[in-house]
Amino acid sequence: xxxxxxxxxxxxxxxxxxxxxxxxxxxxxxxxxxxxxxxxxxxxxxxxxxxxxxxxxxxxxxxxxxxxxxxxxxxxxxxxxxxxxxxxxxxxxxxxxxxxxxxxxxxxxxxxxxxxxxxxxxxxxxxxxxxxxxxxxxxxxxx
Length: 143
What we know:
There is one protein chain. It contains three helices and five strands, in the order αααβββββ. The protein is of the alpha+beta class. A hairpin with a 2-residue loop joins strand 4 (129-136) and strand 5 (139-142). The longest helix has 28 residues, at 49-76.
């Protein structure tokens, strides 16, 4: 065991941290693995154990402190381009058959959709414009 250089142990540690990264998809393990690679470089350059551990800790903490909040912010953003039924939310439609709480028909984006009123007490007459607030299956919910 003493014959193996410290940089090899750091690379083994980096690989070991890469396994839970792949299995759990937790990016923090990847950041720790990068810290281990930097420590391996320090060991390869001849720095002592204290410098290696310090490099590992500094790089790992810096990556977690800087990269993680940026990644979380990006993962919480909605896509800029809405597609499918998400693109229909907020669109205006024209009532073709009376729409109330139990149903009706509208023309939405050039297609005929079944629809029902969000407010079950409200009814929309033929020719009236309505706004789509939600799509449930093949039914547009309108106000």
